[in-house]
Amino acid sequence: MTTASVNDRIQLIVTGASNEKTCSPSLAQGPWEFDTSAPSYGPGASMGDVIPTGSPVQGGLPEEYKVASNEELRARIRAAKETLGDKLVILGHFYQRDEIVQHADYLGDSFQLARAAADRTDADYIVFCGVHFMAETADILSQPHQQVILPNLAAGCSMADMADIESVTQCWEELTALYGSEADESGKVPIIPVTYMNSSADIKAFTGRNGGTICTSSNARAVLEWAFAKTKRVLFFPDQHLGRNTARTMGVGLDEMCVWNPHDPALGGNAAEQVKKSRVILWQGHCSVHAMFKPEHVDAMRANLPGVKVLVHPECSMEVVDKADLVGSTSYIL
């Protein structure tokens, strides 16, 4: 039996198609009273994103930090690092500004920084200058005595937030109902989930519980090869572009893929036959930044700089990737 997501249940209640109620007399206000003000905190509070329910509220900075000059702030950071010594490690993502990176003990992409955090078992405090899912990953790999600190709780990843645990669970239940769960004569199971590193801890745990694994942009092909040795199909989330671009390098045709829209209750917006014949089911998620790069931008760059080499990340659309000279992870590009 398929479990409806919270959003689907709300829509059924609103339209009168369900006998459930959205409020309880024991609550001060209805449980579906969502905060629709401007995003200001919590995972997923990227520009224009809806604030996730239950996100923590971050306390305001003391006034002395707001009025301090850049040099005063740098001096305070240096003094704190000197005082704490090896008890503190600061991780800085490639995407951070120079004034942040200059204080980092390690610089890298999300996977490199997760490994750095795991290696520094001597540190009591891990300050992660990145986004929410990165700090979560470091926390998973940390030791009991360590504290992982995300300086800005509003540092969210819109892509990671596009795959919430309820919607993914609902999708999985529909797919397993369609495919079954028994292995074929060759021992391959009907479907395995694969999630990108850029996902929440809940999604990573779901993937592990269901026999899947986690990939990075640099090892996505190797992970899919591993998966296809065990299964007929892969549910890939949350980034459809990384999944599509990687699968194509392995010879998987576009007609062997389908995109699952979590907001469409009818098999993610697909016909049953299309889902059955698909080898890769792509979650309808994407990076809001990489989505801004268009094929015409590549054309314009080549026109302005003849002979230029164009390097892109596999989170870009297929159309952009097809026009690029090289495709690879952040560490590969740098």
Describe this structure as you would to a colleague:
The protein is of the alpha/beta class. The protein folds into two domains: 68-156, NadA-like (Rossmann fold, 3-Layer(aba) Sandwich); 157-334, NadA-like (Rossmann fold), CATH 3.40.50. Helices cover 38% and strands 12% of the residues. The chain has helices at 6-14, 63-67, 70-84, 98-101, 110-119, 132-141, 158-161, 165-179, 201-209, 220-228, 240-249, 272-277, 295-304, 318-323, 330-333, and strands at residues 88-93, 106-108, 125-129, 147-149, 192-196, 213-215, 234-237, 257-260, 280-283, 311-312, 326-327. A five-stranded parallel β-sheet has the order 6-5-7-9-8, sandwiched between helices. A four-stranded parallel β-sheet has the order 2-1-3-4, with helices on one face. Helix 5 (110-119) runs parallel beside helix 6 (132-141). The longest helix is centred in the first third of the chain and has 15 residues, at 70-84. The protein is globular and about 65 Å long. The N and C termini lie far apart (47 Å). Residues 22-51 have low confidence and may be disordered.
